[in-house]
Amino acid sequence: MPGRRFGETPSDVMLTAENFRYEPTSGFVFRNGSGSMKPIRKKARVGTHIVRAHVLVWLLCNGAVPSGFEIDHIDRNDSNNRIENLRLATASENQRNRGAQRNNTTGIKGVSFDRQTKRYSAKIAVNGRRVWLGRFHSKQDAARAYQAAARLYHGEFACHA
Q: Does residue 54 fall inside a structural domain?
């Protein structure tokens, strides 16, 4: 069925529960009956599907991922698949919980250096639009302004790194 995501039918969930086991203390998923004690770190093949480890954990603990949602790692560590570190998020919420991009010269999300004014500027994206937060004399002041705006606009999905 086109557009159907893995885990949307009870048979998919049962197949997963029969073939895999989850250890909550470590967050690891193991394949049952394989004889291997190696955990599934990133992804596994289930029938004709390739399923990421964090999605397997969600399936085993909570069932199918509802349509329109993704699984977000709260601490942004994609190796930490403990169920308490996973939550449902829309695609935009999942994007809010990201750190600074690799090409960000300040190393702080939402903060850039303006060469003309020799000051740091802070901006945040809200509903697809940029909101100007101001210019600051120090990188730390700009970072505080971004963090306050992130808490206000993004709530629990605000990235604080």
A: yes
* Digitized pLDDT (tens) for each residue of the chain, 161 residues in all: 444 555 555 556 556 667 888 899 999 988 887 666 788 888 888 777 788 999 999 988 998 889 999 999 998 888 999 999 999 999 888 888 887 888 888 988 889 999 999 999 999 988 889 999 999 999 999 999 998 998 898 888 877 55
Tell me, what CATH number does 58's domain have?
A: 3.90.75.20
Nearest to 88 by CA among 100, 70, 75, 113: 70
Q: Are residues 64 and 132 in the same domain?
A: no
Which residue type sits at 79? S
83 vs 158: CA distance, rounded Å: 20
Residues facing residue 132 across a β-bridge: 123
State the total domains in the chain. Answer: 2
Task: Answer yes or no: is 3 within a domain.
Answer: no
Q: Going by C-beta distance under 8 Å and a sequence separation of 6 or more, which residues neighbour residue 123? A: 110, 112, 130, 131, 132, 133, 146
Domain that holds residue 14: 10-89
Residue 26 token pair: 């470590």
Structure tokens at 23: 């250890």
